[in-house]
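Suppose you are handed a protein chain with no further information: no name, no annotation, nothing but its sequence. What can you learn? This example shows the usual starting point.
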Amino acid sequence: MTDRIVDFLRRRTEDGPCMVLDLDVVRDNYTSFAKALPDTRVFYAVKANPAPEVLDLLAKLGSCFDTASVVEIEQVLAAGATPERISFGNTIKKERDIARAHAYGVSLFAVDCEAEVEKVARAAPGAKVFCRILCDGSGAEWPLSRKFGCAPDMAGRVLEHAHRLGLVAYGLSFHVGSQQRNPRMWDGALAASAAIFKDLAERGIALQMVNLGGGFPTKYLKNVPAVRQYGKAIFEALRKHFGNRIPETIIEPGRGMVGNAGVIEAEVVLVSKKSDEDRMRWVYLDIGKFNGLAETMDEMIRYPIRTEFDGDATEPCIIAGPTCDSVDVLYEKEPYELPVSLAIGSKVLIEGTGAYTTTYSAVGFNGFPPLKSYVI
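A reasonable first move is to predict its three-dimensional structure. Written in structure tokens, the prediction is:
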């Protein structure tokens, strides 16, 4: 929470929940990534927060961009980034979207199977492709396994197929899981990557790049290592597995770039119990899973919640959102400690919410509007 955000919320008079993001924090985060891995290009994961102000700032700072759709590509181009600074990093793309991206000048595409390679070859002839491999995401609070990527022993065949179809077999990518708190988790994926590099080199195909993915965390309730610790661990793993022939590398921070830059202000709508004997309070907020807090699913992301009554006596409670859907419960398996003095109408501040909140907010489920966003 920055003084600028506190001052903005103090002056705000509108009703309803909102997310306020401080660009100064984003600027500092970008600088930290650039210093931690100075020989690595930063591709900001646009899906984390595509606010035009964020994209404009990062484009001016020299960032590249990881995009998941044509709309995101158009947003990045509108911010002033050139096509060679854009990666179409989604492994699941319609062929016509590949063609549109290629028409915009984008020439770097992710794949994870031969069928996707064939789509790229037809729609973007001569483009560069990198193959995403599956890797161990243990230790991550938001795992990213199974849906994207192929087994490492399949990647060589996928990239060889790309080479035969006239594409540039450019490299590999992996993702160790979002909110990865163990800097050593890149080691295993880099070992697998080095083996694939060697195998393809023996077949006459020289890969050039390893996309180290995202996973860089923001601070929620638990402390996380500093970015420089990730940089040190990753560089050590690169030297260990690639020796003096370290490939070109890129990273895709999203949460780590904008997560700690944003704070949501919400309001308590109701405090109640389910029976006279019930010792557990229910605290209902005017924001829930469908209004921006989708990452509370299975209680994987536990956001810090601040109130004006911090310091008072606390009791465990169940926190829920405002919609008429029974899954709109944020924290129940592990109840959340909140002040007993919290009451209807009290404001709460939910920290670390600059990433994956406004973009997960529903258009209008139950008639609730999308989460308001302010960038300062």
